[in-house]
Design a protein that fits this description.
The chain is α/β, with parallel strands linked by helices and about 525 residues long. The chain contains 15 helices and 24 strands. Strand 20 (about 420) and strand 21 (about 420-425) form a beta hairpin. Helix 1 runs parallel beside helix 7 (about 205-220), helix 4 (about 130-140) crosses helix 5 (about 160-170) and helix 11 crosses helix 13 (about 375-395).
Length: about 525
């Protein structure tokens, strides 16, 4: 059975068909404003061009910008109730205290604090008060809110209170959906709570999006399952996405990094993905993106779910060049309109692509309009662009080793054979590396929590974490006998009283079926 990988970018929606590890065909089509119709167009085109029957397609993997766009643009976010289990502690900084005003207003800014929570070793701060939670449920019902985020102090250590609180609230609010912070974020109550609230606010949109993707496959004649790529380069089932839409936020850059590694065979490198509007730079280790070690800002909100460490800047094939200005490169881009507005395509706007074509670095469209600007001016503009790329690579580079730079994305025609002292590898099919990354995705499961070792051994804690991560992977659609540990960290926490360790463990497995 074949796989189709699709990645939705700001300029193009790319699609590939793969037979195992063999790339059969890749296509590009302009990204549409509603995103979904662009996916349908790419699906239809790749099936028609490949002449592969729809009943031979085993699965479709999609990397989407739906949820990131909703947060950035402050639209289609549901009114959300935040319930923090913490009293009498952790009430000096209320939920959403560090959010930008506009996004806090968009999700409603409604929160309640109640008794509950745990210490780092699992001991109770205070017991849940069922009557108090029933009163909160009544107040939420009066506000006509049907999406709720629950966060308890140190819930990654013990999530029992979050689950009990959900059951109590659900009995009074049967039509509500719930997000538990212990299922989304890591340690750090504000960032984890932020991630849970943001996820909850996207639940209604995720249900609509999953349904739209299903209709897109149906309209293309496909009856196979659909998976969505997530932040770490692995896949989620459609039902999993309904529950955890925030886990897709960085799927675009991640797909490109995974695809670059696959196409080149390089497992340790810096990846530069140059699109039509922006450039994303990140490092891959063992073929997977290096994860950010600090909190990640999403639309002005700090979160702490695991995200790839990616540096993005405004340089792409469609970036507008204004030689007469002090800062001549971008940040505006013509995006998918480059085919009508760029000089090489008969338009009147000077873009980064025109500079590359004018200097003879690429053979696209008509070189004459850009070339007539003169080599001196074009070289000056290119020197600025090259410096931006070099700075981006050095920013994510963590080793003095002479590792390769993998250049992918349609805009990577802007790159030369060297970035500083590092060699550049540009693989065949570099323009659709992001869709390849989606198509090769595996299923993952992850655990990040503190274990008290006063009553259990380190080996027992590691085994517990491994079992939890494995069950998460299976629930997300992984084949049980294919699961293996990809990453494992065991960090003793000497600064806490008692004997405790923080374990992060991630497993991956092949798609079941």
């Amino acid at each position: 059975m074949y796989r189709i990988g699709i990645d939705v970018g700001g300029t193009n929606t790319d699609a590939v068909i793969m037979d195992g590890e063999k790339l059969i065909l890749g296509v590009k089509s302009p990204t549409t404003q509603d995103v979904t119709s662009g996916i349908v167009a790419s699906l239809t085109q790749v099936l028609a061009d490949s002449e592969i029957a729809t009943d031979q397609i085993g699965a479709v993997m999609i990397g989407t910008t739906h949820f990131t766009n909703a947060v950035v643009e402050r639209r289609r976010l549901s009114k959300t109730a935040a319930v923090r289990l913490c009293l009498p502690a952790a009430e000096c900084l209320p939920p959403m205290v560090d959010w930008p005003d506009d996004i806090r207003e968009t999700v409603g800014g409604h929160y309640w604090m109640a008794k509950g929570g745990n210490e780092f070793d699992g001991r109770e701060i205070s017991a849940l008060d069922e009557d108090e939670l029933k009163g909160i449920a009544e107040a939420i019902g009066k506000q006509s809110i049907d999406t709720i985020a629950i966060c308890s102090v140190f819930s990654p250590v013990n999530d029992e209170m979050e689950r009990k609180a959900r059951d109590i609230l659900a009995a009074r609010l049967p039509d509500a959906n719930f997000t538990l912070s212990s299922e989304i974020g890591r340690l750090g109550i504000l960032e984890r709570e932020n991630a849970a609230i943001m996820n909850a606010s996207l639940r209604a949109l995720s249900a609509e999006t999953v349904e739209a993707f299903g209709k897109a496959l149906e309209s293309a004649g496909l009856s196979c399952p659909c998976f969505i790529t997530q932040n770490d380069g692995t896949l989620m089932s459609a039902e999993f996405v309904r529950a955890y839409p925030v886990l897709t936020f960085a799927s675009g850059p991640t797909n490109s990094m995974r695809g670059a590694s696959f196409l080149t065979g390089e497992e340790n490198a810096v990846v530069v993905d140059v699109g039509g509007t922006s450039t994303d730079v990140g490092s891959i280790i063992k073929g997977f993106p290096r994860q950010a070690s600090t909190s990640v800002d999403i639309g002005g909100v700090r979160t702490n779910f695991r995200m790839p460490d990616v540096f993005s800047f405004a340089l792409g094939g469609g970036t507008i060049i204004k030689p007469e200005e002090d800062q001549p490169i971008g940040p505006q881009s013509v995006g998918y309109r480059i085919h009508t507005e760029g000089l090489v395509f008969g338009g009147k706007t000077l873009t980064a692509t025109d500079v590359a074509v004018g200097l003879g670095m690429a053979d696209i469209g008509d070189r004459e309009p850009a070339g007539s600007l003169g080599k001196t001016l074009l070289s000056k503009m290119y020197a600025i662009m090259d410096e931006m790329i070099v700075n981006g690579v050095e920013r994510v580079r963590v080793s003095p080793d002479k590792i390769p730079v993998l250049a992918v994305g349609g805009g990577s025609i802007l790159m030369q054979d060297q970035v500083g002292e590092l060699p550049v590898i540009k693989p065949e099919n570099f323009a659709v590396a992001n869709a390849v990354g989606a198509a090769i995705g595996q299923i993952s499961g992850e655990v990040d929590r503190i274990f008290s070792l006063d009553k259990t051994s380190r080996d027992e804690a590691l085994e517990t974490a491994r079992e939890e991560a494995t069950q998460k992977a299976i629930a997300a659609g992984a084949k049980p006998d294919s699961i293996e540990v990809l990453d494992q960290e065991d960090v003793p926490l000497a600064y806490l009283p008692g004997n405790a360790t923080r374990i992060h463990l991630k497993v991956v497995g092949d798609l079941d079926g």
